[in-house]
Inverse folding.
């Protein structure tokens, strides 16, 4: 995947720019949760609330953000929080906030 990103950057980058200038651009790219990671985070949040058969009290948005941070090693993006929220709602669990 990294190779595809670098190839994409090279195609749109002006001719003659040193290849070492790609590194700062790569550092700006944010990591996004995979679908499997979203599912795993939701499973962990539900389990912490008492499991699938437990009460359906709202799950803390802060807890979701902490788990996302552990997976991505970065501050959670709003789009990732929204994906976790949507998955939890699909499973019948509201996300606080």
């Amino acid at each position: 995947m990294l190779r595809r990103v670098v190839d994409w950057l090279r195609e749109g980058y002006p001719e003659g720019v040193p290849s070492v200038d790609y590194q700062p651009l790569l550092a700006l790219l944010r990591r996004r949760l995979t679908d499997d990671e979203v599912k795993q985070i939701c499973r962990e949040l539900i389990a912490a609330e008492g499991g699938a058969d437990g009460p359906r009290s709202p799950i803390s948005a802060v807890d979701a953000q902490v788990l996302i941070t552990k997976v991505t090693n970065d501050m959670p993006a709003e789009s990732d929080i929204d994906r976790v929220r949507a998955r939890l709602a699909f499973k019948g669990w509201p996300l606080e906030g």
Notes: The radius of gyration is 18 Å. The mean pLDDT is 82. The first helix runs from residue 2 to 12. The chain is about 60% helix and 0% strand.
